[in-house]
Amino acid sequence: MSRQYRNRKGHDLEKVVHRFTDDDLSELKPKKVFAKKWIIIKKLDKRGAAHCYQVCDTSFKIFGVLYLETGNDNVTSIASQVEFSLQQFSLGYSHRFTNVIDSNIINNHLFYMVQRTRPGPTLETLLKCIRSDDDRLKVSSITASFIAIDIISILELLNSSGHVLRNFDTKQWKLDVKTRMFYLDDITDVQVSSDKRHRSIDEIHIINAETLDLAWTSNDILYAPIEFIVNGEMHRMSELDQLEMLIYILFDWTRGKLPWKNSKCQQRTLEMKRDFLENFPDPLEKFEEPVDHWFSTALHNLADHLKVAKIAQAKLEKQAVRGGAWCPKGPRAGALLSIINYRRIVEDFQKIVCSGRPEWSVYWRDIKLDWDKEVELTPEQSSFLQKYEKRQKCLEVVDERARLDAIRVHYSVMEEHGKFEREKNQISIEQYLRGGDPNDPDEKEEIERQIAELRQKRMQKIQDEIIEEDEEMDMKIDIKDEIDDYDDYYQGT
Q1: Model confidence pTM above 0.85
Q2: To pair with 158 at 20 to 30 A between CA atoms, which of 138, 464, 472, 490?
Q3: Are 37 and 46 a contacting pair, CB within 8 Å?
Q4: 47-69, pLDDT tens digit by residue?
């Protein structure tokens, strides 16, 4: 043993691991690089137990939200969110939820993930645009139905994957400006379901359902289900609770106010909610258009569907389950994934958005909503949009031309290769017909000379084609400076 090794201190032989605290995670400074990949832009509001920051990659091309959370016994909500996001991505439903583009564990206790930021406003921002001067919200039947279609579709996906949404916050929902589709941008309140169907899938669901907090997460009980008011923290959010929550939301948006909005007594709120569901009122004060009658009927049908579903749920609780589905006729009979007919409910609201016309006959995603307003453009704005559209068309033409050129080159090479092989075979056939000896050095040399000539002709033809392509490229329109006043325009506005 060397003298240098003997003189080392004891702690030098140990690996020191830094333990991050909540104070460390809440004090990350802007313009710093996290994990050598993400640049901190600014701090965002805390989501659940996770500290959030707006970040971008080092190439300034990808923007997202960074979630940081320390795990107790390696258990965090980030792990379940990453698992859920990957599950929806593998099933082809990533457009309905936010996408996780990076995740890892640091020092075996700090969990982080980065969710991609998609362009578009939040539902909270859109609803603010249609609030009246007295801060009262009044949503039209078509707009409420448009939003309900996407919410119901997402609730269906959550139920089919064994998850529930434990709160409704308009900040968590965003509108994708490209597809005009609402999606769940923040999956913090998504948690595994404690339903009997999913508790029997595997041991993990059983443990989570018994130990994790699966109740309503918000302190505001305006949209909270009745079961939460009755059971409190012991409440387990269910599929039917989500449907009940949706009824409260749509009624509040269209009528402008729920009966128990100003109630401060939970018992009084509970009684009012029960009476509300039992004797469902009209969601609109005035029926000004035909679609208002259709919307009222659709919402009444939704409330009646909830009543029937609760009765059926109580009966199915005594039946067998298999693979996340009910088996009302025994464990070996056909399975029932859900007692709620989501597709029928979505079709009711789609008819309202389409104003009774068939879905295939109208682009119902492009329908005018309450917050869509026509604004007269200034000459500078019109000029900028025309140049931008022209630039986009030029880029599409260039991309299509490059794709077609690549296809042409590919088939040209294949054709030339086939010709070359056929000519080689023809030389061999002529040698055989002449009765020449294939092992004769003179014959071999003659064949190689002929093949070399063919190869030289082929290379000369390819070079000529390359020269022709370069001449064509010189004649193409340069589109780099198509919008020369791009920066000046934004600085001027």
Answers
A1: no
A2: 138
A3: no
A4: 888 899 999 998 888 899 999 98
